[in-house]
Every structure is written in C-alpha cells, then in structure tokens.
Amino acid sequence: LPAFKDHRYFTVAEKPLFMVYHPLDHPEMKEFIELWRTLAVQNGLKGVYFIGQTYHLKEEKERLMKMGFDAINVVRLFDFEKKAALTYKYAKWKHKIFRIPKVVEYKKASSFFVGDEEYEENIIPTIIPNWDHSPRSRGKSLVLNHAEPSYFARHMKEAIKRIENKPLDHRLAFVKSWNEWAEGKYLEPDLHYGKRYLEVIKKNVVEG
What we know:
39% of the residues lie in helices and 17% in strands. It has 9 helices and 11 strands. The protein has helices at residues 2-5, 29-42, 57-67, 80-83, 85-98, 106-109, 134-137, 149-163, 196-206, and strands spanning 11-12, 15-20, 49-54, 71-74, 102-105, 123-124, 126-127, 142-145, 174-175, 179-180, 185-186. Helix 2 links the parallel strand 2 and strand 3. Helix 8 packs parallel to helix 9. The mean pLDDT is 94.
C-alpha cells in the first residue's frame, strides 16, 4: 500500500499498475483481483490496473479478460517457431546433429516479436533486446544470434507503431528484460555494445 500511494508509482487511469506473470497458474486469480480492487478503494485509491502476461494470446485472451484483467501483455519471443517454421526446423536439426543450442538469427526472429493485436488498447507489446539461454540450460537452449542494436532499433520502431495512437497513459510496452544475464536477455550496458541498446531507447522514446 505505501508503494501504491507513492507519487512515483506508475499508474494507468489514475490506478496503480500491477502485472501478474503466468496468471493462469494461480487458481484464485479472479478472487485475488476482486479482493485487491476492493482493498484499494477502501484505502483511498481508485482501484488497481491489472495486467496479465501471456505467451499464448490467441488461446488465453478470453480467459484472462474474464478473470478481470484490464489489459494483457503478450510476449512473442517464440512466435517465430510457427511463423518461420523452416528457420526453426533447421536450428533444431543442427541442435540434434551437433548437440549445440538451437541458434536462430535475431534479425529473423524479431520480425515476429509484435503482432496486429497490439494495436488494441488493452493489448501491450513486449520489446525483446536479445536472448541466449545457454548459461542456464547449455545444449538445450535457444540462442538469438547477432542481437545487434541496429536490429533492436527496427524491432522497437515496430512496437512503438502499435502504441503511438493509443491514449497517452495506455502507450505501454514492457521490456524483457533489464538484467536477466543468465538468460542473455538484458539492456544493461556490457563490454560488447556499451550503452547502444539504451541509446536506441533514448532516440525512439525520449527524443521521439
């Protein structure tokens, strides 16, 4: 509650934003949302703006909205597996033969990181700078190769295109992630690219 009432806390429609990871894994999700909204109003807030995160928008959208979520954050990290099937089959073939991680070019995979559903006001895109799960899962992992800032910039522009015409406080996008070093998924400066990922964000968001 002190965090929700802090003037720095991010809000949508004057309600504190709260996102739930894998919401369908929680058997009492609907009751949780209803209870927290009631408590929020009782404590002087206008409610809570709940966002449910999913990797499977088509299959889970209706269920999540019926649970009471205000919006859905869709993560399309693995959409290329179906939409670029030949690319993924080749990566799996090399993985099986040579016992190396499944390697896919970021330039190819990132073209599927946002979809048309994200034009909807309550569907929030995810911006994905990179991915290399090999530190955590070694040979079974997926690696997005050549995740360079220039390709990240192209992907980010596509995400911004989806939200630029929404009402101001609904122009939301989540970054996956800031510092997931064990999954090779981060925006923090590194020795290879320095601050170039952050410079892409500055150019497209701050300087616009």
